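Technical annex, item 7. During the second reporting period the consortium partners agreed on a shared format for inverse folding records so that results from different sites could be compared directly. Each record opens with the tokenized structure and is followed by the designed sequence. A conforming record, contributed by the partner at site C, is shown below for reference.
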């Protein structure tokens, strides 16, 4: 068993000389990682320290990005989900992308598609912070779109990875059961 080495007086003096002029670095607070499985929605800014926490308004339904089907999650993680239709939003403005997404999801729902792929791109910085990617997550949580969508999951790498999403649409049978 190794014994803990004690610092000598010279070691302590040398360390004191090194750290004497050092000031602590106080970085800005880092946002905690999302608590849900996909890590996609509910990106909210971090409140400054000492600020009162903002109370969220209770939602009637959970966001479309919540986890719920482990079997579907495994199939999505392996890239083994049959994709019925694809929408690529590269090159669209925010307004045009929003209108196109609404139209696309409406048409997919009318064709009874179950899983569609929406490609948003990662953004110019490739850090996953592209504006269309962020806005997409807001758009799918709008009430009228959320009522058509079962859930949203990040796509497998072969389908676009962090720059694409699987959108699972509700079936006609599940809507009849709700009514």
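Designed sequence (site C submission):
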């Amino acid at each position: 068993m190794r014994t803990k080495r004690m610092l000598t007086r010279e070691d302590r003096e040398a360390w004191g000389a090194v750290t004497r002029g050092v000031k602590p670095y106080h970085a800005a607070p880092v946002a905690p990682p999302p608590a849900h499985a996909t890590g996609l929605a509910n990106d909210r800014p971090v409140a400054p320290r000492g600020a009162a926490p903002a109370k969220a308004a209770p939602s009637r339904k959970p966001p479309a990005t919540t986890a719920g089907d482990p079997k579907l999650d495994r199939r999505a993680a392996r890239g083994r989900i049959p994709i019925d239709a694809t929408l690529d939003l590269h090159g669209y403005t925010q307004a045009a992308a929003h209108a196109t997404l609404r139209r696309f999801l409406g048409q997919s729902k009318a064709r009874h598609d179950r899983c569609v792929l929406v490609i948003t791109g990662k953004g110019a910085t490739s850090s996953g912070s592209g504006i269309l990617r962020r806005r997409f997550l807001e758009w799918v949580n709008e009430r009228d779109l959320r009522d058509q969508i079962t859930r949203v999951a990040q796509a497998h790498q072969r389908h676009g990875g962090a720059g694409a999403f699987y959108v699972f649409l509700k079936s006609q049978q599940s809507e009849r059961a709700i009514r």
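Residues 47 and 55 are 12 Å apart (CA to CA). The chain has six helices and four strands. All partners now use this format for quarterly exchanges.
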